[in-house]
Design goal:
Layout: H1 5-31, H2 38-60, H3 65-77, H4 79-88
């Protein structure tokens, strides 16, 4: 079985974008006092990440529904932290090593 690092990298990048969008939206809802308790914030954040990620992936990418769910999960737990950890463990190349403009 071959592990698809390119797919993982794509999922982490998309999850990072969705994570930022969800964070800003969650902060707006918290400032409006629509979400007050910590369990409400967590539930709202998880739901928002999943909906946003699936919608984003199906609109702007060719990822499958299953991959879109992974994007939502990674954006909820912190895609940027996952990427940095993999990079530190030398399991993934640094971003500068990728030719992003092919």
């Amino acid at each position: 079985m071959k592990f698809n690092f390119e797919l993982l990298l794509n999922i982490l990048w998309i999850a990072t974008i969705c994570q930022v969008l969800a964070l800003v939206t969650t902060q707006k809802f918290k400032s409006l006092r629509l979400v007050r308790k910590s369990w409400q914030v967590i539930l709202f954040n998880f739901t928002l990440n999943m909906i946003l990620s699936i919608s984003f992936c199906l609109t702007f990418t060719n990822l499958t529904i299953l991959s879109s769910l992974w994007v939502g999960f990674f954006s909820f737990i912190g895609a940027d932290t996952i990427y940095k950890t993999l990079e530190e463990k030398k399991l993934m190349r640094r971003l500068s090593e990728f030719n992003l403009y092919k």
